[in-house]
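F.,

This is the one I mentioned.
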């Protein structure tokens, strides 16, 4: 009896060992777009489907799991109904942000592939970065700037790696998608950036490099209007200052509420307060040297104050707002 029990225990142990033994094969998922942008993701074009495939085995069952920001993912793996063949077709409309894996069997051994993610949201909506030369611009409204003649402003697509061919505009276009002959289209401007030296209202339309038929418009809310001209603030920050003449009295410094600057011999000044990036923050004409300048609304930090006397002398002082 003891011998029989020992044999039975050995048989059960070997059976368990056989069930839990690692298979000699490793299924993997392949597809045309898998790994093109990210190693474990299929990035869709929004009008296309994608076929996932694995190696040849005896049987197949495909599973999917909804994406979640948490790790580990709390969502269950669910069998895809009817998905029992070597390949599975997924699409951007129904399978976006789902993980997929396939369970296969061969010679009574069962194994699973690593999971991959179907992701069509790698394409952020277009956005534009605007770069000014410090001291050459003044914002006058949301998305509108006065810019000094002779300077330039550079516009860049914030997501250049995602987008290929661009259409740049110098005014609000009449048609979207672009139509050949639209006078707002800047001829020859098809790259990720454009540098403007003349007045206009600038933005772009771009097609994704990965999906040439998938194109996006920046939207009129993202356009930037530039007015180039010889504005009063032009040259203040970059103008020549004679060190011998840069002797204006400025107090208190640091300051919290008000600031006094000037000397009696100059009588009046045109005053400009500029932040460290060169952006014009505050401007005042015919400032009397004994008058207080209200800086209570400024954010704490370092600032330049440029003073131009009635005689044309330019003084540049630095102060700290506490």
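My design for it:
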């Amino acid at each position: 009896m003891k011998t029989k029990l020992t044999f039975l225990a050995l048989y059960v142990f070997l059976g368990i060992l056989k069930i839990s033994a690692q298979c000699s094969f490793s299924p993997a998922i392949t597809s045309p777009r898998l790994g093109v942008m990210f190693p474990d993701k299929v990035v869709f074009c929004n009008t296309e489907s994608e076929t996932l495939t694995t190696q040849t085995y005896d049987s197949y069952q495909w599973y999917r799991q909804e994406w979640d920001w948490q790790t580990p993912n709390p969502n269950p793996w669910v069998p895809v109904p009817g998905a029992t063949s070597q390949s599975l077709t997924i699409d951007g409309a129904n399978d976006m942000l789902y993980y997929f894996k396939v369970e296969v069997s061969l010679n009574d051994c069962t194994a699973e592939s690593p999971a991959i993610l179907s992701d069509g949201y790698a394409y952020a909506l277009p956005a534009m970065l605007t770069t000014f030369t410090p001291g050459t611009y003044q914002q006058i409204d949301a998305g509108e700037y006065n810019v000094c003649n002779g300077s330039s402003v550079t516009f860049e697509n914030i997501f250049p790696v995602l987008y290929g061919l661009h259409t740049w505009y110098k005014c609000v276009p009449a048609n979207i998608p672009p139509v050949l002959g639209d006078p707002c289209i800047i001829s020859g401007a098809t790259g990720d950036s454009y540098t403007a030296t003349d007045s206009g209202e600038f933005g772009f339309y771009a097609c994704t490099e990965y999906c040439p038929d998938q194109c996006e418009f920046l939207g009129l809310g993202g356009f930037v209007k530039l007015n180039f001209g010889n504005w009063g603030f032009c040259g203040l920050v970059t103008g020549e200052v004679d060190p011998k003449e840069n002797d204006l009295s400025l107090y208190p410094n640091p300051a919290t509420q008000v600031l006094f600057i000037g000397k009696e011999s100059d009588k009046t000044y045109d005053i400009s307060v500029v932040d460290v990036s060169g952006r014009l923050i505050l401007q005042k004409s015919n400032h009397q040297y004994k008058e207080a300048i209200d800086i209570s609304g400024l954010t704490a930090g370092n600032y330049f104050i440029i003073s131009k006397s009635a005689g044309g002398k330019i003084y540049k002082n630095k102060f700290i707002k506490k």
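The chain is about 5% helix and 40% strand.

Talk soon.
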